[in-house]
Amino acid sequence: MGKIKRKIISIRKLINYWNYLYYVKNKPIVSDYEYDQAVKELILLENYRPDLITSESPTQKINVNIKNFHNSIHHISPMLSFDSIYKYNDLINFDNKIRNIFKVDRIVYCCEPKIDGVAVSILYENGKLKYAVTRGNGYIGENITNNILNISSIPLSIENNITKIPSLLEIRGEVFLIRNNKSNLLNERNNVAGALRKSNLDVSDKKLLGFYCYSADIISKELFFDYHYNLLQYLKLYKIPINKYISCFTNTKDIIKFYHDMHKKKALLNFNTDGIVIKINSFAMQKKLGVTNKIHKWAIAYKFPSHEKITTVKNIVYQVGRTGVITPVAKLSMINIAGANITSASLHNFNEIEKLNIMINDTVIVSRIGDVIPKITKVLLYKRNSNAIKIKIPNKCPVCNSVTKYNSNKTKLICTGKLNCSAQFTELVKHFVSKNAVNIPGLGNKLISKLINNNIISNLIDIFYLKEVDLIKISGINHRLAKKIICEIKQSKKNINLPNFIYSLGINGVGIVTSILLSKFYKNINSLIVSDIKILMRIKGVGLKTAKNIYDFFQDKNNLFIVKTLISKKIGLNLFYK
């Protein structure tokens, strides 16, 4: 059993034990922070090894696979997140970028505490609460209407004698545990999520849960607002709870003062917070900036300081990703930050190496950004000595020995070997069979590597021609397991849909969100194949760079052969958007 797999199993057992003590025995033994760190570490490991994710994982019991929802609801519009920053300079850069885009001297920002709870969406139809849904995967969430109805701060109906009530009003906000000086609550976010999924809330749960609205959409358009802050204030007329600390500012100095004030007040608030959210107040500006696959471009989350430790850089290794990007990774003398042993940290790109002025054997400060991801934030130059070794930029791929080159804006070093590079091909196959793509759980990372190293798989097509006799050649694969994997491959052909297939191809910049947008627009794969850049850019959310990546992908003869073979009668993938 691999090290990562053992660690995942160990953390799951620990979290499940904590959950048992908390929910069954009502005897929590760890703090929120310790619990959260364990969950975040598990999420990070599972993101690295998605083939090991199961429905029984603690990470899946709250934000579960949508296919397992007993009663799910599609969001009217996606519930996306925000980029996170951790330094004042990052805030200044964000502000400068926005002001340069709009060519103005100042921007009005609406700032609020970032509540650490569970995000939900609530729809009111003709003034009556129709349903409530969790964030889920951002597109589909779990129906939690029955329990939302029991939270006293959320109105069951909205009535107002002064203004007109929209026929369709969607509000979004955070459900949180109400904290007070007498309470000593542990596992706060987990408690919220657990309560929202109970079949019936008990009296104690009802008293402990609170809600603050942070955004809304008047879907029926009877009313119109120019500014985010004004809309939130208007919602107060409907008795919808709005956080009293929401404020507007026009410069970064006032924002940073608000940030520090909220940090000082953190322990005194009736909710848990891990930073502030900064949003552009103008809806017109928000619309112009738009969104990406995952985030709103018009807002950022400014997180409170993360934990830091000092260690040394033992070596630099290079990882080659699916798209050929070569990433330098610093191997560190082991440190423990917030309960996690840290032995490596990504340096992201070679510009970061130059920016940090980092060398092998340097003494560095490492922080866990967002208390999850290790990051080298500073080199202690005064501790540098004669054994420091300059980091060289490789002119050849460390895996396939192909020539390397920089991308157009000199930010990424690329291996030119493409799928002739075993690292790139291996990562592509892992991506292709992953849960959100073709979904073949039995083809785990180790097995994929063995199949490629043994020349059993040389392209994506070969996956669908695998036979039991091929699999049992691999050590650790018996007839029973081989038969199961073959069944999974056959089942994947029946279950694959157009969005998942587009995503599975690994086109640079095309995530699952863009894949859904492309599927809705083109309806079938053949229409996408013959499309051009101009038509692609008509799709909201697809910019020039992504459009060019899609177009170039299908212009490649090898890619085109792979795709056409996969949808031919030989393989039989029927790909139409339904």
Describe the structure concisely for a colleague:
This protein is of the alpha+beta class and 578 residues long. 36% of the residues lie in helices and 22% in strands.
What does this structure look like?
With 578 residues, this protein is of the alpha+beta class. The chain has four domains: 3-62, Orthogonal Bundle (Helix Hairpins); 72-303, D-amino Acid Aminotransferase, Chain A, domain 1 (2-Layer Sandwich); 307-416, Nucleic acid-binding proteins (OB fold (Dihydrolipoamide Acetyltransferase, E2P)); 419-566, DNA polymerase, domain 1, CATH 1.10.150. Helix content is 36%, strand content 22%. The strands form five sheets. The protein has a five-stranded mixed β-sheet with strand order 2-11-10-3-9. Helix 12 (422-432) packs across helix 13 (445-453) and helix 17 (498-504) packs across helix 18. The longest helix has 22 residues, at 3-24.
Features:
alpha+beta; single chain; five-stranded antiparallel β-sheet; OB fold (Dihydrolipoamide Acetyltransferase, E2P); Helix Hairpins; 22 helices; 578 residues
Tally of individual helices: 22
Task: Report the portion of residues in β strands.
Answer: 15-25%
Instruction: Tell how many strands the DSSP assignment holds.
Output: 18
The main β sheet shows up as:
5 strands, mixed
Overall morphology: globular
Our measurement of the CA-to-CA distance between the termini, rounded to an integer number of angstroms, reads: 41 Å
